[in-house]
Amino acid sequence: MRTNNNYRTLADIFLMLLKQNAKDENFKAYVSKVKTLMKVPECAEYLSVCLMNELGCPSPITASTIDKAFDYMAHLYEDSIEENKELTREQKSREKATMLNFMNQCKIVVMKFVANMGLLK
């Protein structure tokens, strides 16, 4: 897609719209985190496919892309836990384990959903 001499993915346009509509600081922080994820090609592709499917345009995706997107999201979250100075080492360890379990469960649900829709390449 081409707009104003810039090539944009569907995810880029989604982020642009989110940013334009951001009024409170928490929402702006959320948009900033999503923008960080979009720097990873698999995450950008994953969000674009999710948006396309939500708009009623079935778009296939590979299992590898889903794996890499969720792994990168988990990595970012691990970094944010590690940077939290209010947590003890034990609390950080528990928080990371809980998050990794949750991310793996989400990945499994997404893979099954995409496969059941016939969109897994």
Quaternary structure classification: single chain
Q: What gross morphology would you assign? A: flat
Q: How much beta, percentage-wise?
A: under 5%
Question: Main sheet: which strands, in order across?
Answer: 1-2
**Total tally of structural domains:** 1
Tell me the distance between the termini: 23 Å
| Largest beta-sheet characterization | 2 strands, antiparallel
Distinct helical segment count: 5
Order of helices and strands: EEHHHHH
- The tally of beta strands, per DSSP, is 2
Poorly predicted runs are 1-7
User: Average pLDDT across residues?
Assistant: 79
Structural class: mainly alpha
Question: Could you characterize what this model shows?
Answer:
Helix 3 (41-54) packs across helix 4 and helix 4 (63-83) runs antiparallel to helix 5. The chain has a two-stranded antiparallel sheet with strand order 1-2. The chain is flat. Strand 1 (2-3) and strand 2 (6-7) form a beta hairpin. The chain has one domain. The longest helix is centred in the C-terminal third of the chain and has 28 residues, at 89-116. The relative contact order is 0.11. It is built from five helices and two strands. With 121 residues, the protein is mostly helical.
